Amino acid sequence: MTALRRTVSPEQPGPASTRDLRKTYPAAPARTIPTLRRVAHGGTAFLVTRKIFLATIAVMLAACGRPAARLQHARDLALAGHHKTALLEARAILLTLRDEQGEKVDAVRRGTLKLAGDLCAVYLDDPRCAAAEYRELVKRYPTASEAFEARERLGDLDMRIGDVKGAIEAWRDQVATAPGRPGADMAQLRISRALLDQGQFHDARTAASELQRRWPKSPLAAAAALLSASSYHLSGRHADAIAAYDAVERKYHGTQKGAEALFEKGNCLAEMGNDDAAVKAYTAALPHHDSPDAVQFSLERAERRLQRGSPVNPRNTAAVWDRGYAQRRASAQ
After folding, report:
1. Are the CB atoms for 262 and 249 separated by under 8 Å?
2. How many CB atoms lie within 10 A of CB 279?
3. pTM (predicted TM-score)
4. Is-contact 184 148, C-beta < 8 A?
């Protein structure tokens, strides 16, 4: 036994005793025992949690590595209702791309700018943010399909923030870039309306005439003609306005726009003091106007003014004092 003990090298320690192991590890860690027990009994909860964790890590690594995957992740966040988080992710993608070039990079950048603009415009109700994203998209990729869609929204966004000049420029850019694309005639009509609201009557008529010339078969051509006529009316040129309303009514006779022209002609005549002609215009407008109550109200006012201005028999006290209103109400009842 003594010789055997001497053969053991002091540099190779022998096996520790059970008592020493117990002193070193009195008990297993608290979190390890329940986990080991679950694994021993099938480990379902542990394995499911582990799979979810690994899948999440895999998605995050893929998203961090590929811009296209990150863009899809941002879209998924938006679809899930996490709009602010999706916008932050989109902006992070743009910062990552910076000024990189390439077909795939450009596709991701276009989609990201479009996503950011849509999030701001539709879900976050931030027109300034949306206009900034859309303008960057149009600036970088003026002929891309996403840029055409951005142009269609830019004008409305500028109007929401009170930038009328920017809205007019956006609509003009939309018309100039894609005159054959659906919505170009509407953009031209909006230009005319904005100019009219700004008091630029001559420019408004020019824009309306441009719509009728370039899109003569457009359903908005009648509205442009009516708007052009109203520019004379609003500027106080009543004689020119009446002539323009007559031209619109002749061209669109029997339609709603023709009735609107007759109604506005009646208003113009009433402002000039010609209630007799105004009554005739209102009466002709009634059958086809989309707001007959408004036409009827203006018609009755013109008729009352005519009755007040007409001569009466001084011996007829009812006509002298109330101009026949009491009699009309009695007959109506």
Report:
1. yes
2. 21
3. 0.71
4. no
Taking the C-alpha atoms of residue 252 and residue 224, their distance in angstroms, rounded to an integer, is: 12
For tokens 């370039």, the residue is 214
Q: Where are the domains positioned within the chain?
A: 63-178, 255-310
pLDDT tens for 199-237 read 999 999 999 999 999 999 999 999 999 999 999 999 999
CA 12, CA 274: separation in Å to the nearest integer? 123
Interhelix angle 238-251/256-271, nearest 10 degrees: 160
The number of angstroms, rounded, from the C-alpha of 96 to the middle of its chain's C-alpha atoms is 28
Q: Which two tokens stand for residue 11?
A: 């540099």
What is the Cα gyration radius of the chain? 39
Question: What CA–CA distances, in Å, run from 213 to 131, 184, 221?
Answer: 31, 13, 9
Digit-coded pLDDT (tens) for 85-116: 999 999 999 999 988 889 999 999 999 999 99
CATH of region 63-178 = 1.25.40.10
Q: Are 63 and 90 in contact (CB under 8 A)?
A: no
Tokens 């007409």 -> residue: 310
Cα dist from 294 to 47, 109, 176, 178, whole Å: 73, 52, 39, 39
